[in-house]
Protein: Integron integrase
Organism: Desulfomarina profundi
Amino acid sequence: MITDIIMPNMESKRKFVPNRKLKLLDQVRETMRYYHYALSTEKTYCQWILRYIIFYNKKRHPRDMGAREVERFLSHLASREKVSASTQKQALNALVFLYRDVLQDPLDNSIAPIRAKRKVHPPTVLSVEEVERVFHHMSGTHLLMAELIYGSGMRLMECIRLRIQDVDFANNNIYVRSGKGGKDRITYLPQCVSEELREHIDRVKELHSRDLAEGFGEVYLPGAIAKKYKNAARETVWQYVFPARSRSIDPRSGRERRHHVLESGLQKAVKRAARKAKLDKRVTVHTLRHSFATNMLETGTNIRVLQDLLGHADVKTTEIYTHVMKKDIKALQNPLDRLYARKSKKKKDK
């Protein structure tokens, strides 16, 4: 059974029916936009659905297939393509969405494909000295973003999607909205970059003012906020902390807006800096988050507190950092030394 990795239970009945005159992938996009799925999720799901159709040589429409065909496709991913467990789960979720919400013919819970092996790899972490070497080869906005991630433990997209109202300078807090799993949380605002971030936001406000003067200034708003608050999209507090250099056309609404920066810019900057720092490790933006967690544990932070800061649903996820943190073994007593000490004491007592 693979019911444990099927998407979360949807108690409310789905009523939206896509336009059946559209092509299948257009129906998928229409349905995902109705339910406010992220654009990145939309692209990923469409890719998996297309791969599913191609797997059967484009000869059969998904409505003419079902659980057994899905099971065979997922087994192929695990046994032949050797995908990871998370990748197999992603493919399953895309097909569950297709059948449940687009074709309105939900898959039964008896799907039991060959499971992809779940491998647990210890995270790559950097010491404080190594982080300093990486930051030495970065500058500008990319450096500020990297420092925020290392100093707060945010994920890449959580940092990219920060809004001006999410930064609380008075209390040195950052509010992470709709993080992984759609959860909100509070984490640190490192005091050492507080002033620099304040100056950066002042420049963002000036940029927003110029956009407004030119008849633009709107930003994408999540959920139904745009409908509920008509002018919110133009308000300063809703603007991204890290906006793109130029305005672009929103692929969904067709409106010209200023979106946030692309994540690829920071990813490339971190990799380039790690290469210049001559680190013999695979360093990514997420390595900074791993390093934050490990360094916090090494300085005595309670693991439950760290769990909240990182936004982990289960403390077991946080515990993986205990395997890579530096441990002071000098204070530990070796059992063999204790044995010999015991023998020595007995001899003295005689």
About this structure: The radius of gyration is 25 Å. The longest helix spans residues 194-213. Strands lie at 167-168, 173-176, 185-188, 248-249, 256-257. The chain is about 45% helix and 5% strand.
